[in-house]
From TrEMBL:
It comes from Sporolactobacillus kofuensis. It holds the Pfam family DUF2800. This is DUF2800 domain-containing protein. Residues 372-393 are annotated as: Disordered. It comes from the Bacteria.
Length: 393
């Protein structure tokens, strides 16, 4: 086991060809250089994720690397708890991550080598490429790369995950001489979505991927060359508000043509295409509007648009004082508050899992109703249904 300095998660440096953006620059090679001209802003979600990673790191460090007294641990935890982005759920989800890793290490015939928050250098494949791997274990001939994801937008799959595969290339470089690594086990633990995704593949295939795919694409990306290829990866691209190629996929809706040349009604194939394009439309328009607003505020002209003051909202100067004054003047306190019952998911969040099961599930006080049919992408893991297979009455 190794002792290393704790990482400053909020100020990690980023490589041009960073692992977390690999999905983007491997698919659209000119994006890396194009993005350079846009500021790298941090969202509230990212700050929340950073804090969750810091808490996870503390827990892993305590269990695997440097046993610490309860006092030291509590002092460090309390510092995190004072952060405005902290909530109790974070404690629960980082525990889930720790439990997964504990089970993984205990399931191995020998105690694995464990290291956390290590910088992985994969610059042999991508110029200047490095990133920080959350937790690496090595036991026998297997390299285990574990990644904690705090997002709850979409479940992330470990299969062919370029971010983790790049870390694996870095880990091979760092530990491949010391350990007889023959296979790689990737795991993504995303507790807020109940998602644990695992994928195992051979060292040999990883190296082939690195040489045949990453190396040439990374060389193009480093030079800012290649084709602009829009796709799902544009979601996190800093250039998306102004990117011509990204905009092009939305205006491509016109390609369906005039009724004279083509049938008046769209075919089912075209309908599928419309939904594919349209699912990113909201996100794109939002990014474009944000960009246009920043231009107007900077005094630049966006033809047909201007910045104005939005609607303000009314707030109590001091709510307690205002309510006290109202009740003193004969207003019934009860009408000043809404008493709203908590939903099942909110109560579940408040209680411990065991308590929730004992108090609500076992006595039969909660029921699960059948979900309404909904449209999902073909790659969604849920089984496809039809009116013939399901009774929706
Ligand atoms: S928005 Fe998409 S197509 Fe445009 S540069 Fe970024 S990743 Fe490439």
């Amino acid at each position: 086991m190794t002792a290393v300095k704790e990482i400053d998660h909020a100020h990690r440096s980023h490589a041009l060809l960073g692992a977390s953006g690999a999905h983007k620059w491997l698919n659209c090679t000119p994006s890396a250089r194009l993005e350079e001209q846009f500021p790298d802003t941090t969202s509230e979600y990212a700050k929340e994720g950073t804090l969750a990673h810091e808490i996870a790191e503390l827990k892993l460090r305590k269990y695997f690397i440097e046993p610490m007294s309860s006092r030291t641990y509590n002092t460090r935890m309390n510092k995190f708890k004072r952060d405005e982005h902290y909530d109790d759920e974070m404690d629960k989800h980082t525990d889930t991550y720790l439990e997964y890793l504990k089970e993984l290490s205990m399931s191995r015939p020998n105690a694995p080598f464990v290291t956390i928050e290590q910088r992985m250098d994969y610059s042999d494949y991508a110029p200047g490429g490095f990133g920080t791997a959350d937790c690496i274990m090595i036991e026998g001939d297997t390299l285990f790369l574990n990644d904690f994801k705090y997002g709850k937008g979409v479940p992330v799959s470990a299969e062919n995950n370029p971010q983790m595969m790049l870390y694996a290339l870095g880990a091979l470089k760092k530990y491949g001489i010391l350990y007889p690594i023959e296979q790689v086990h990737l795991a993504i633990i995303q507790p807020r979505l109940d998602n644990i995704s695992e994928w195992v593949f051979r060292r040999e295939d990883l190296v082939i991927w690195g040489k045949n795919l990453v190396k040439p694409k990374a060389a193009l990306a480093d030079a800012g060359e290649g084709e602009f290829v829009p796709g799902d990866h544009c979601r996190f691209c800093r250039a998306k508000a102004q990117c011509r190629a990204y905009a092009g996929q939305f205006t491509a809706l016109q390609d369906f043509g005039a009724p004279v040349k083509k049938p008046a009604l769209l075919t089912d194939e075209e309908i599928g295409k419309v939904i594919n394009i349209g699912q990113h439309l909201d996100n794109w328009i939002k990014a474009v509007k944000e960009y246009a607003l920043s231009q107007c505020l900077a005094g630049n002209e966006i033809p047909g648009w201007k910045a104005v003051e939005g609607r303000g909202s009314r707030n109590y100067v001091d709510q307690d004082k205002a309510f006290a004054y109202l009740t003193e003047h004969g207003i019934d306190e009860n009408i000043l508050y809404d008493r709203v019952p908590l939903t099942v998911p909110k109560v579940e969040k408040l209680l411990k899992k065991k308590q929730y099961d004992e108090l609500l599930v076992v006595p039969g006080l909660v029921e699960k109703t059948q979900g309404k049919p909904t449209l999902a992408p073909a790659k969604d893991k849920r089984q496809a249904i039809t009116s013939a297979t399901q009774d929706f009455s």
